[in-house]
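2024-03-11 09:14:02 INFO worker-7 job=invfold-0412 stage=load source=structure_tokens
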């Protein structure tokens, strides 16, 4: 048991953003740099975790980001996704962390010059906003519901490594 635990610790890679470090799950593959992202991890085909930092005081409020992320999902019954979303707040190593869990048809991200594509049914988002010492860091893990569910524990463990 100790060898398995030791091996798991050795296999993990540490990553960081301004004033915050975390340990990435061993089976998550780090991708090349992308604009506005500290990191991008491919978790499985069609599932990724993007980590964002926009600067101190930038990126919008926690509430605005939660609303935007939740708003990227449509519910089959036509009800607002906000009613289906689970939001939680807790402290991890002294930092305030707000998490969100929402499922449905994912409309994806649309920017000022991009229109959203067709909604992808059966998707899920696990998100976390870490109010770090130099500003908020945003973790957004999206993918097919089964893939996200299979990696939910790994996402939680990543958050627990924040320091």
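2024-03-11 09:14:09 INFO worker-7 stage=emit residues=163
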């Amino acid at each position: 048991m100790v060898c398995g635990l030791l091996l798991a610790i050795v296999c993990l890679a540490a990553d960081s953003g301004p004033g915050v470090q975390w340990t990435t799950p061993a089976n998550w593959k780090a991708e090349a740099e992308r604009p506005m992202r500290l990191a991008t991890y491919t978790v499985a085909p069609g599932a990724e975790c993007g980590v964002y930092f926009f600067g101190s005081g930038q990126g919008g409020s926690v509430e605005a980001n939660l609303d935007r992320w939740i708003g990227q999902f449509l519910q089959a019954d036509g009800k607002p996704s906000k009613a289906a979303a689970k939001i939680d707040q807790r402290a991890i190593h002294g930092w305030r962390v707000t998490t969100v869990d929402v499922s449905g048809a994912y409309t994806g991200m649309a920017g000022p010059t991009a229109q959203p594509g067709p909604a992808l049914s059966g998707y899920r988002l696990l998100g976390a906003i870490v109010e770090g010492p130099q500003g908020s860091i945003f973790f957004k893990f999206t993918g097919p519901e089964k893939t996200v569910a299979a990696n939910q524990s790994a996402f939680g463990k990543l958050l627990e490594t924040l320091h």
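2024-03-11 09:14:09 INFO worker-7 stage=report msg="The domain at 13-160 is CATH 3.40.1000.10 (Protein Transport Mog1p; Chain A)."
2024-03-11 09:14:10 INFO worker-7 job finished
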